[in-house]
Amino acid sequence: MPEILQNILIILLAGYMTWDNGSGVQLIGSWPVCTAFVMGLITGDWNTALVIGGTLQLMSLGVTALGGASIPEYGVATIVSIFIATRTGVSTGEAVAVGLPVGMLTLQLDVVVKYVNTFCAHWEQRLLHQKKFSQMQGVYILSILIWSLKYIIPVFAVIIFGAPLVNLVTKLIPTWFTTGLEVAGNMLPVLGVGLLLHYMPVKKYLSFLLIGFVLSAYLKLPILGVALLGAAFAYIIFQNETKKSENVSYGFVDSIEGDDFDE
Predict the structure, then answer these.
(1) How many Å is the Cα radius of gyration of the chain?
(2) Chief localization class (predicted)?
């Protein structure tokens, strides 16, 4: 696929994420693995795309936007990291180390577009009271376009300046520094897993966590096999908890243990 066509499709993907995140359908959302799948289709480099997508997915597991909170857009970071890796040939660790700050930049852009769209919301409200429904719909579409800028602007800037700039920088900076970036990029997924474990009832299910670790780290079982075993254990726990709830409802159990979130 010609690079110019790839660039257009990548920018369109960034714009589509706006609608996908807010429409309620969420075919890909801003999940890095889903975004990486589409980027793999565009770039043709499935291995690089999925490795980067999986890495950033691990980093984002413990991060969620509650209410009106602003969080880094890991979908944007995924697009930028894959673009950098496939166009410049840098390692996945270096690409993630470059793409992640771009995703962090969306924190500031998110605040800006929210302020701007507040005016759009009041504008729509005035038009609603005036029963100018077609104009109100137009302002709503305008607000979507404004919202999409926090995705499109960083991706567009990287496509225009990113690859040549990264090539120049990688030639100028010393090897020890790029090695440090790669190490840092490889360590960041551990932080995401740590954040996720902080919110999970780890003490209650520590034995299952240790089983999964041993199977993966020492017995070298592929991650899909570990995931399937985890799903089987989760189903067994679900069945046991369901039976326990039924017994409680029929008066067979006098006390109820704490739930999964009592830690």
Answers:
(1) 23
(2) membrane
